[in-house]
């Protein structure tokens, strides 16, 4: 906090960037550092929700059998998740999960994309709260589906007891318990969070690093330019990560649901 | 805050600990998004997909039905054509057979007629010949008797009648001629 104040007083960004760079002052009340209800991050979440709702309602207000361009675009997003994730992973039973998977995919993709959209330039998913919510929903979803499908006892028997010789089960059951019921939500949340956090951190390092070198010594200007070129290159990498992580989150959720629905281990 | 800042140097936030305010905001926002999209948008997309599939499958089914009907009609026409050809051939064969039959009939009748005419001629000739022979025989007898009477005398006529002389003579003549 003091560091930031110093940075603002000195008229230059701090280098190296720290965790504090992820916690911007709140918008309402303006400039407060300990209020989190209405910050840039939460505003972006609401914007993402609003944009997605408006986009889908507007394009699908009056659906035609022969689609218009916009309708086709909205349908191809849904069709992609439905056919390439839900049906591919789960089979025909996956169609009923397609609406949730598509909502999840669109939300993660758009909130991730804020990381490289000018003026947003940070993803809400670099705060672990949002990936954690989505991971908990996935966790509850696949366990609920599994219990509903098989009943409580059979579901846990299916999940915990792999088809292995009895003498190895004492080793396998704790591993299964740990990996399925404890690690899954954490890995899901942390994977998305860490990717977005690291991506933002990398862009900060190269952008601020350029300024830091320039202000330290004018002779370092060519290196600053190189640093900013790296920023541009890393933005492309970030774009890849954004799409990939949205896809991975959805695919893993689908895979967990598939595992819960499966008859045998 | 101050406490944390004092303890941890610059860092007052732990990025691994979620801010509960953000959890609340995120949950509400995501719930709103899920509600709207999963209730009003994606089910309608599913319906549209289904309608599209129905339309395409319906079109294919209609085309298949039309094709099947066309094939059936074609088969029917072919069958009818084949039947007509068979009928025509049969009629031709019948006509030919009839003509042959009529010809045979006419020939048979003509032959019969000619046989009849020939037979009638023969019969008539035979009858005529028999008549002539009978008449001649009577006449020859009469003439002979007359001539003999004229030569021998009138009484001979009764005598000849009584004894069959003339007949005997004539029979002798005939047998001599036959021999």
From TrEMBL, chain A:
**PANTHER family (UniProt xref):** ATP SYNTHASE SUBUNIT A (PTHR11410:SF0)
What family is this? Belongs to the ATPase A chain family.
Q: Which UniProt keywords apply?
A: ATP synthesis, Cell membrane, CF(0), Hydrogen ion transport, Ion transport, Membrane, Transmembrane, Transmembrane helix, Transport
Transmembrane intervals: 37-60, 97-122, 128-145, 166-186, 192-214, 226-248
What gene does this protein come from? atpB
| Matches recorded under InterPro entries | ATP_synth_F0_asu (IPR000568), ATP_synth_F0_asu_AS (IPR023011), ATP_synth_F0_asu_bact/mt (IPR045083), F0_ATP_A_sf (IPR035908)
Q: Where in the cell is it found?
A: Cell membrane; Membrane
What's this protein's function? Key component of the proton channel; it plays a direct role in the translocation of protons across the membrane.
**Name of protein:** ATP synthase subunit a
Lineage, top-rank taxon, reads Bacteria
Q: Tell me the membrane topology, using the record's own terms.
A: Multi-pass membrane protein
TrEMBL record, chain B:
Please list the coiled coil stretches: 56-94
InterPro entries registered for this protein in UniProt: ATP_synth_B-like_membr_sf, ATP_synth_b/b'su_bac/chlpt, ATP_synth_F0_bsu_bac, ATP_synthase_B_chain
Q: How does it sit in the membrane?
A: Single-pass membrane protein
Q: For this UniProt entry, what is the primary localization, expressed as one broad class? A: membrane
Location relative to the cell: Cell membrane
Q: What GO cellular component is one of the record's annotations?
A: plasma membrane
Keyword Magnesium carried by entry: no
Q: Which Gene3D superfamilies match?
A: F1F0 ATP synthase subunit B, membrane domain
Bilayer-crossing residues are 23-42
Taxonomy, superkingdom: Bacteria
UniProt entry tagged with the keyword Heme:
no
Q: Which Pfam families match?
A: ATP-synt_B (PF00430)
Record-level Gene Ontology MF annotations? proton-transporting ATP synthase activity, rotational mechanism; proton-transporting ATPase activity, rotational mechanism
**Which CDD domains does the annotation name?**
ATP-synt_Fo_b (cd06503)
Q: Which UniProt keywords apply?
A: ATP synthesis, Cell membrane, CF(0), Coiled coil, Hydrogen ion transport, Ion transport, Membrane, Transmembrane, Transmembrane helix, Transport
Similarity comment: family membership: Belongs to the ATPase B chain family.
User: Entry's HAMAP family?
Assistant: ATP_synth_b_bprime (MF_01398)
Q: What does this protein do?
A: F(1)F(0) ATP synthase produces ATP from ADP in the presence of a proton or sodium gradient. F-type ATPases consist of two structural domains, F(1) containing the extramembraneous catalytic core and F(0) containing the membrane proton channel, linked together by a central stalk and a peripheral stalk. During catalysis, ATP synthesis in the catalytic domain of F(1) is coupled via a rotary mechanism of the central stalk subunits to proton translocation.
Subunit note: F-type ATPases have 2 components, F(1) - the catalytic core - and F(0) - the membrane proton channel. F(1) has five subunits: alpha(3), beta(3), gamma(1), delta(1), epsilon(1). F(0) has three main subunits: a(1), b(2) and c(10-14). The alpha and beta chains form an alternating ring which encloses part of the gamma chain. F(1) is attached to F(0) by a central stalk formed by the gamma and epsilon chains, while a peripheral stalk is formed by the delta and b chains.
Output this protein's name: ATP synthase subunit b
Taxonomic source organism? Micromonospora taraxaci
């Amino acid at each position: 906090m003091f560091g930031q104040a110093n940075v603002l007083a000195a008229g230059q960004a701090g280098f190296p960037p720290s965790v504090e760079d992820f916690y911007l002052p709140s918008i309402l009340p303006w400039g407060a550092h300990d209020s989190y209800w209405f910050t840039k991050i939460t505003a972006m979440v609401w914007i993402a929700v609003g944009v997605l709702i408006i986009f889908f309602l507007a394009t699908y207000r009056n659906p035609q059998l022969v689609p218009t361009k916009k309708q086709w675009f909205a349908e191809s997003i849904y069709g992609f998740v439905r056919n390439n994730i839900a049906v591919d992973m789960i089979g025909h039973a996956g169609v009923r999960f397609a609406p949730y998977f598509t909502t999840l995919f669109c939300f993660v993709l758009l909130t991730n994309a804020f990381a490289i959209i000018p003026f947003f330039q940070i993803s809400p998913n670099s705060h672990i709260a949002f990936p954690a919510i989505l991971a908990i929903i996935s966790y509850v979803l696949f366990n609920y589906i599994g219990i509903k499908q098989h009943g409580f006892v059979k579901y846990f028997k299916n999940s915990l007891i792999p088809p292995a010789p009895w003498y190895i089960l004492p080793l396998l059951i704790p591993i299964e318990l740990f990996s399925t019921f404890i690690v899954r939500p954490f890995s899901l949340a942390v994977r998305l969070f860490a990717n977005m956090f690291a991506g933002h951190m990398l862009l900060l390092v190269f952008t601020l690093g350029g300024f830091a070198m320039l202000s330290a010594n004018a002779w370092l200007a060519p290196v600053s330019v190189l640093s900013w070129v790296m920023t541009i290159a890393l933005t492309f990498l970030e774009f890849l990560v954004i799409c990939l992580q949205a896809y991975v989150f959805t695919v893993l959720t689908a895979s967990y649901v598939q595992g819960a629905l499966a008859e045998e281990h | 805050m101050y406490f944390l800042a004092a303890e941890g140097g610059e860092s007052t936030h732990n990025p691994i600990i979620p801010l509960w305010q953000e959890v609340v905001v995120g949950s509400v926002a995501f719930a709103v998004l899920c509600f709207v999209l999963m209730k009003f948008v994606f089910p309608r997309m599913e319906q549209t997909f289904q309608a599209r599939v129905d339309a395409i499958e319906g079109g294919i089914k209609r085309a298949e039905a039309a094709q099947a009907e066309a094939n059936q009609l074609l088969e029917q026409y072919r069958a009818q054509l084949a039947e007509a050809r068979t009928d025509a051939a049969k009629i031709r064969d019948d006509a030919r057979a009839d003509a042959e039959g009529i010809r045979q009939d006419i020939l048979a009748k003509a032959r019969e007629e000619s046989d009849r005419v020939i037979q009638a001629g023969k019969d008539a000739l035979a009858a005529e010949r028999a008549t002539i022979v009978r008449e001649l025989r009577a006449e020859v007898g009469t003439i002979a008797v007359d001539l003999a009477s004229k030569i021998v005398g009138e009484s001979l006529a009764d005598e000849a009648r009584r004894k069959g002389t003339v007949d005997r003579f004539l029979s002798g003549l005939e047998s001599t001629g036959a021999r």
